[in-house]
Amino acid sequence: STTRRAEGSEMATLYSGTTLYAIAAAEYGDATQWWRIARANGLTETDIQAPTSLIIPPGTPPGSAQLPDE
């Protein structure tokens, strides 16, 4: 489930077996945006290992997504 957070972000409670790809697809309509959720939560893996709450950053307008800086 998600609840609205300050500055347009949301919190989502997730369970084992969920991936950041699936969350990004559901939240942004684009699985390739998984890195935004990972960055906001200090994660390096895309699999969710246990029940956890994640920050879901606000979405971007279609076509304006940028790749992460590396």
Write the layout of secondary structure elements.
Layout: E1 2-4, E2 10-14, H1 20-28, H2 34-41, E3 52-56
Antiparallel strand pairs: 1-2, 2-3
Helix pairs in contact: 1-2
Structure explained in plain terms:
The protein is α+β, with helices and mostly antiparallel strands and 70 residues long. It has two helices and three strands. Strands 1-2-3 form a three-stranded antiparallel sheet. Helix 1 crosses helix 2. The longest helix is centred in the middle third of the chain and has 9 residues, at 20-28. The protein is globular, with a radius of gyration of 11 Å. It starts with a strand and ends in a 14-residue tail after the last strand. The model is unreliable at 1-6 and 61-65 (pLDDT under 50).
Structure keywords:
globular; 70 residues; 3 strands; three-stranded antiparallel beta sheet; alpha+beta; disordered N terminus
Short description:
The protein has helices at residues 20-28, 34-41; strands at 2-4, 10-14, 52-56.
Share in helix: 10-25%
| Distance between the ends | 31 Å
Backbone structural class? alpha+beta
Helix and strand string, N-terminal first?
Answer: EEHHE
Number of helices: 2
Beta-sheet strand percentage?
A: 15-25%
Stretches with pLDDT under 50, minimum 5 residues: 1-6, 61-65
* Principal-axis shape: globular
What's the gyration radius in Å? 11 Å
Strand order of the largest sheet: 1-2-3
Mean pLDDT: 74
